[in-house]
Amino acid sequence: MSKTILITGGAGFIAHHAVDYFLKNTDLNIVTLDRLDYSGNLNRLDDVVRSHSEEDRKRVRTVFHDLKAELNPQTINMIGEVHYIAHLAAQSHVDRSIEYPMEFILDNVIGTANILEYARKLETLERFIYFSTDEVFGPAPEGVNYKENARYNSTNPYSAAKAGGEELAVAYHNTYSLPVIITHTMNVFGERQHPEKYIPMCIKRVRDGESVTIHSNANKTKAGSRHYIHAEDVADAISFLINAELDDATIDDYGNAKCHKFNIVGGEELDNLELAQLIAEAEGKELIYEMVDFHSSRPGHDLRYSLCGEKMKAMGWTPKPVRERLQQVVNWTLENDKWLDL
Fold it and tell me: How large a percentage of the chain has pLDDT more than 90?
């Protein structure tokens, strides 16, 4: 009998790619836990699920629940037996976290506490993956790539709330022996991403001949940079970690810390100007842009984030090239431009 993975926030951007990935590449049954809000969109799920066979579509179920509340017996019964949990549900937009910090604390900290409480009572659970972010480590100076157990230095309510959820997951590992894995990733992109995000925003503005705003330093001479990674590669990394043999050799021992942590990192660092230029080239258009000092005018925005991906690479996992993925997303988005006009 096939095992079941529970994916929280399944109608969200990254999670719906995970649903698609697990349908394509595994025989797992999939339950998504959703409340549907600003970032959730069941049309995403419908778009990917209906592209599969009727038999595969039967492997996906959606249960509606807001994780700010504990899971009651009826909801737990509807979910059924679970072997893996990928906790991807979260509020994730930095601008909104600066304006509405309590929303992020309730969703990313309290919500995580409630799914952990549910998880620790499961007798069949084999792995719990908490999906964290590079932003818990704060801005990275040139030449610095943070490893999995670097110290936290949150610069906005979003990253602080994700760090809070991460520490709760570590505590449940240490206190209750919950089989927790922590992942950090950064700047995920792909098909059906909300147009407020940088890459779809660039695709739309280049298409329409509008100016693209480039996040830069105070002198407006250097663009901010990230390691971009496609959502399908993130899903592939999650699957890799679900199936990986984990032991003490895969733990970096920082003061006897024993919770498994892994960075899921794109293979190439790109600055935002270079990225926008690649998008313009993919569209066959000229880039119109303006360098803007976001950090000084908008506290909580950082010029550079960077993670070290050597741990996953040493274990045998690497993502597909970002430039190849970027061309793929540009082509798909222009052909399916309803996703640019949400």
Answer: 78
Q: Which residue has the higher pLDDT, 105 or 251?
A: 105
Q: Domain containing 134: what range?
A: 4-189+227-264
Residue 120 and residue 202 in one domain:
no
Residue 51 falls in which region: left (phi positive, over 0), alpha (psi -120 to 50) or beta: alpha
Classified as helix, coil or strand, 144 is coil
User: What does R_g of the chain's alpha carbons equal in angstroms?
Assistant: 19
**Same structural domain, 88 and 236:** yes
Q: Look at residue 306 and tell me whether its pLDDT is greater than 80.
A: yes
To 5 degrees, how large is the angle CA 252–CA 255–CA 256?
70
Q: What is the pLDDT of residues 27-57, one digit of tens each?
A: 999 999 998 765 557 888 899 999 999 999 9
Considering its fold, how many domains does the chain have in total? 2
User: Which tens digit of pLDDT belongs to each residue from 6-15?
Assistant: 999 999 999 9
Same domain, yes or no: 217 and 114: no
Does residue 73 have a pLDDT over 70? yes
- DSSP state for residue 65 in the 8-state scheme: -
Residue 127 shares a structural domain with residue 165: yes
Distances (CA, A) of 292 to 187, 202, 275, 289, 296: 19, 15, 16, 10, 10
Are residues 91 and 219 both part of a single domain? no
Task: Work out whether strand 269-271 and strand 225-227 pair parallel, antiparallel, or are unpaired.
Answer: antiparallel
Q: What is the CATH number of the domain that holds 145?
A: 3.40.50.720
Q: What share of the chain is helix, strand, coil (3-state, %, to 5)?
A: 45, 20, 40
pLDDT in tens, 178-214: 999 999 998 999 999 988 889 999 999 999 999 999 9
203 with 79, same domain: the answer is no
Could you list the active site residues?
134-135, 158
Q: Which residues of 205-228 are buried (b: 16+ CB within 10 A; e: fewer)?
A: bbbeeeebbbbbbeeeebbbbbbb
Burial (CB count within 10 angstroms: exposed 0-12, middle 13-18, buried 19+), residue 249: exposed
CATH number of the domain bearing residue 322: 3.90.25.10
Same domain (yes/no): 185, 286: no
Whether 237 and 190 have beta carbons less than 8 Å apart is answered as no
